[in-house]
Amino acid sequence: MDAPATLDRRDARGPGRYRLGIDIGGTFTDLLLMDEVEGRLIGFKTASTPAPEDAVIQGILELQRSHGIDPAEIGYFSHGTTLGVNTLLQRNGDNVGVLITKGFRDTLELRRLRLPKTNDFFVAKPLSLVP
């Protein structure tokens, strides 16, 4: 049985030429673009904005302006963000609350029960994310 045919994306001309990865952080938004035809990588950093999508658009427009990238040729787009993790670690997000159903009141005290000594009544637990 013959192996299925595969397409070498580096031979592709036209749409799908670029792969773009973006990391949206609290201070900077990082973009990394890979040109699958030429095999080059282009990195770019822009200041993050209160509306994260604005920094993404600004970064793509800058890639277009400074490197002649046609956004229509981006065949793969991936993004991640550290905004949520940073908010938890820095404890600077909005106030939140937790609703616990009847019979599970101890959930707040036990949390996830990932303690080094589960039977130690005096173990120091991390601060609760919900006061």
SS field, number of helical segments: 3
Summarize the main sheet: 4 strands, mixed
Mean pLDDT: 81
Identify the CATH class of the domain at 9-90.
Alpha Beta
Estimated share of beta-strand residues: 15-25%
Any idea what the radius of gyration is? 23 Å
Q: What's the number of extended β-strand segments?
A: 4
CATH superfamily of the domain at 9-90: ATPase, nucleotide binding domain
CATH architecture type of the domain at 9-90: 2-Layer Sandwich
Low-confidence region ranges: 3-14
Order of strands in the sheet with the most strands? 3-2-1-4
What is the third-level CATH name, the topology of the domain at 9-90?
A: Nucleotidyltransferase, domain 5
What does this structure look like?
It is a single chain. The chain is an alpha+beta fold and 131 residues long. It has a domain at 9-90: Nucleotidyltransferase, domain 5 (2-Layer Sandwich). It has three helices and four strands. The chain has helices at 52-67, 83-90, 107-110; strands spanning 18-24, 28-35, 41-47, 74-81. The protein has a four-stranded mixed sheet. β1 and β2 (28-35) form a beta hairpin. The termini are far apart. Mean pLDDT is 81; it is low at 3-14.
